[in-house]
Amino acid sequence: xxxxxLVLNFDTILVILAASLFGIFVGAVPGLxxxxxxxxxxxxxxxxxxxxxxxxIVTTSAMAIFAxxxxxxxxxxxxxxxxxxxxxxxxxxxxxxxxxEALGINLVCSVFGGIFxxxxxxxxxxxxxxVALKFSAFEYFxxxxxxxxxSIFISVGSxxxxxxxLLFGVLLSTxxxxxxxxxxxxxxxxxxxxxxxxxxxxxxxxxxxNELMSYYGSKSEKKTISVVDKDSxxxxxxxxxxxxxxxxVRGSSIGTMIGALPGAGADIAAWISYGVGKGRSKDSSxxxxxxxxxIVDASSANxxxxxxxxxxxxxxxxxxxxxxAIVIGVLYMKGMNPGPTIFMDxxxxxxxxxxxxxxxxxxxxxxxxxAIRLSKLFILTPSRVLMPIILCFCIVGAFAIxxxxxxxxxxxIVGLVAYLLAVNDFPMAPAILGLVLGSVVENNFMSAMLRTxxxxxxxxxxxxxxxxxxxxxxxxxxxxxxxxxxYQKRKSERASA
Amino acid sequence: xxxTNHSLKALITSSLAAAVMVASGSALADYxxxxxxxIVPWAAGGGTDATARTIARALEEExxxxxxxxxxxxxxxxxGHTAMLNxxxxxxTLGLATVEVNIMHWQGLTDLxxxxxxxxxxxxxxxxxxxxxxxSPYESLEALVDAMRSEPKGTFNASGTGQxxxxxxxxxxxxxxxxxxxxxxxxxxxxxSAPAMVELASGGIDVVSTSVPEARxxxxxxRVKSLAVMAPERLPNFPDIPTAGExxxxxxxTGAWRGIVGPKNMDxxxxxxxxxxxxxxxxxxxYQGFMDKQGFGTEWRNAEEFGQMMEEMDGILGEIVEQxxxxx
Lengths: 497, 328
Known about the structure:
The structure holds two protein chains of two kinds. Chain A is about 75% helix and about 0% strand. By secondary structure, chain A is mostly helical. Chain A has one domain. The model of chain A has no long low-confidence stretch (mean pLDDT about 85). Chain A is built from 22 helices and two strands. Chain B is of the alpha/beta class. Chain B contains eleven helices and eleven strands. In chain B, helix 2 packs across helix 9 and helix 2 packs antiparallel against helix 10. The chains are: A mainly alpha, B alpha/beta. At the A-B interface, helix 3, helix 15, helix 16 and helix 21 of A face helix 2, strand 2, helix 3, helix 6 and helix 7 of B.
């Protein structure tokens, strides 16, 4: 295969190595994100050949998504909305002194998910893309509702508070130009708000700033990060794999499927996978208290989702997420036009691309391991030095996404609100998902209604849509049904006694 | 970050040079004597961004100065365009303006109009294509237009961009040109062309109006066919697609342009220098090769013609915005 030759040369390997380090760095710094890392790379890819250019993007995004879990684990500051699903879980483990163990299994699951998604991409890309094209506004509406519902059902503590937090996020998602009418909503004459509230400054405010404020707000004797890491990174991994391999396969399958849908991405995948995992687990009560199983579910799903997003991008030139949207432009520029022909043009480019995927994911093991070892820095650095540095990066990260000062204000305001919510035990994660999915729910609902002239039954008129709709309604009714079942059981037990 | 001694020295020298220059007032004869900033009102990684970075690279070779691309996104283009006109008109801050300049003020989203800029050169123009699914019963634009005309309002729907986006207005303009009301076909807003293409293929939408390059991958995948392009001549990259004029009797054209502008009141000498350099950059292999690969349309207009084009387009699009009921 000439694909191998295209990859296994000095230049490409060097690019992969450099991109790995870059991705790990950007991902591991609280406040900087994977999408930002890829956007920064684009001008550089202008000067590269096709394969190194793609390799740089693939490697950077995979590394940054994993590395985002490092500050998540140590500092409770997730790197991406996708890792917000299980940040509570891994931070709880870190507090128990199992930070490295949590990151170790996370790393292995990320690699597994990434390679699983790549194999699906290689084997069934074309038929999977066919299925993805069957999804229309009706299906995306239900899928987004399912994701939002999962965020309530997996929350720890009061579901009412989780629901209110979700609504806060949905409220933020209504800011900006309404896609349907073209009219600005809640923008108060600020042009920067017309494109809506970007989730990155909000996420930085909600998690990082909130964390900083609770640190400075706490009593002085508690002013150390209550995390120790003396455990081994990979020691317990074989045991966890043996126990949870089903979760890995299930998470990766869910991740690849949802990632392949152009209107849904790794975020929804991680939440749904985590939700499904909790629903099917034998000890679901342990979810949210520092449970390896939940990390396995969600971290294999979000990395496979990234590979899955390439399916519609390569087959139809339709981006599966914000990263592949950038990639498609680069592919065209390099004369590698997406479409069915990309699989048959005989140049071996597509095979080279697959090899890059596998290589980038494998590279995560050693580099990720080093990054986990180095992350001791988070603990060794005195908090009074670390916290101001994090604040600097938060401001840089919020500004850099749009080069806009308004986003810094947004981050500061949201951080203040989030602090007030957090001291009153409201969970943050549902709000982030609400912000990301709120407009997906609204726009798909409105689009479907415009098309059918307001016929609500149309949401059950298509087979996939009807199936998803019934699943959502069953999920909503499940607490009631379970209560009714238990009540009946107790009644019959009493009757027979 | 550790700065090497060398680059530190370079930094000091260049900042000194900048300080001296500011103090002495800019000597026009030597323009440009320091790097130029090019503001892009859309996100890094998109089509406009790539176009800007390519022309910037070609321009660097002509001017012998760095041209730095800065993305000022947000506000559906308002933020970036506002940043361009608020810059100092010294020729060191330019912008890549897009067709939204001719649309947004009609919708009441901003006060800025084309008159707030100094036009320098138009470097791109994309014409809208009319796309339907491959299994659609309509084989030609004529059949489609006849069917739309004979059915009552709201029978057909179309998509391709957000409410009041250029492809929406271009399509509504075609309907008006064919003696239908601008809202005879229901417009289903979408976030860009890619989601609209998916809806078209999944059977949720009848027609998609976007530029032909945006439909290319789906055309090549055999999912979508382009019935016609609304342009005076066939597109060089898509010679099989007829023009609207060939199929139905129509000489209505509108489309998306991109051009280099500066703030109002720029020095005519600076504009002339830039115009000349841009023309060479436009004709360079770097720029032409890139645009050809992407399938984007190239169209050159110098400062004067570019200004006239914007004025003309502003009137046409204002009329359509009024007719589709989005004027504010």
